[in-house]
Amino acid sequence: MKLTFLGTCGNIEPRSESHARHSSLLVGYRGREVMIDCGEDWLDTLSEVKPRAIVITHAHPDHAFGLKNGAPCPVWATAESWQSLDGFPLEEKRLVHPRRPTEIRGITFEAFPVQHSIRAPAVGYRISAGAVSVFYAPDLVYIQERAAALARCRLYIGDGATVRQSMVRKEGDQLFGHTPVMTQLTWCAKEKVPKMIVTHCGSEIVNGEEYGVRDEIRALARERGVEVEIARDGMGMVLR
Length: 240
Ligand SMILES: [Zn+2]
Ligand SMILES: [Zn+2]
Prior knowledge:
Elements: E1 2-7, E2 24-29, E3 32-36, H1 46-49, E4 54-55, H2 61-64, E5 75-78, H3 79-84, E6 93-96, E7 102-104, E8 107-115, E9 122-129, E10 132-136, E11 142-143, H4 146-150, E12 155-159, E13 167-171, E14 174-178, H5 181-191, E15 195-199, H6 203-208, H7 213-223, E16 227-230, E17 236-238
Bound molecules: zinc ion (2 copies).
Residues 10-11, 60, 62-63, 138-139, 200 line the site of one zinc ion.
């Protein structure tokens, strides 16, 4: 499985050379690729990426508004996301059913509901190809069925909106927002996922990467016996 981090930014103003565009991941296997998420930053440059398939986690602007003018390929999303993206001129809409694995271009995607937004319900994807599984959840408070989602995953690719400070809020009895990297590293330790890659970076990481944030995150990971890496735009890796 080949991973290319096209973009690694959350829904924030600050940008840097390493974090210039909204988070998006290109997953490849045997020469075929699928793009996950297509935020507003990709609106004018989607033609450069030339995706053959796009899968969406949720309907927030930094994950789906790059599709405002349409897409050159089929797009997969949950029924809830399609409701929000109703006005977008997309010709090939495909439905994602949570917990039902679907093969897209030779790669298996299984959507797991994650708590994140009340108005734009989100999923994370367990992605499997060959012998490798990874989990991708750029925005979340928690994964409803975490043990099943992360079982035997080689990598957890998670939400970098905040490092230690909780950005979880409450409306009625519903939680929304972002859980810190620190907590997600604890999930990795509990579910025996050896490594986390931090994407969807917030201002704390984008502004602080040169000033010790990287060391802080590494220390949190080391305490939990997990490896960690902060993704950069354009970063690639191959998992065998
Ligand atoms: Zn986001
Ligand atoms: Zn979001």
